[in-house]
Here is the input.
Amino acid sequence: MQHILLVDDDEAVRTIVRIALVRLGYVVREARNGREAMRLCSESKPDLMLTDIIMPEQEGIETIGAVRRKYPKVKLIAMSGGGRVSATDYLHTALAMGADAVLAKPFTGEELEALVSKVLGSTQATG
Here is the structure.
């Protein structure tokens, strides 16, 4: 089974995305911010990290850079709904920092499934 680390400070977003990914057959762990994500990443290297950009304690751009340095094989998808600037500005920065793909919030379950499958290089979860 492929393992995904889902990082978002919004519990509702984490719940919805986790349910969608588990239904697709992925094993999902959750983190509320980048600092917690880095701890979980060191404990069990995920196949994919799906991370929000704007979060407290350690935001997504910093987390993407850290994951790229420490765990270069982990695939990364950045997601953002924006904030003080447009979501596309944050997502372009995420790509420049090493994200494999980006996803603008709000997104559909179909968009999530297609992008996760594409980034992981499979049409469905294994297991």
In short: Residues 123-127 have pLDDT under 50 and may be disordered. The two ends are 4 Å apart (CA to CA). Helices lie at 11-23, 34-43, 60-70, 87-97, 109-120. The chain is about 45% helix and 20% strand.
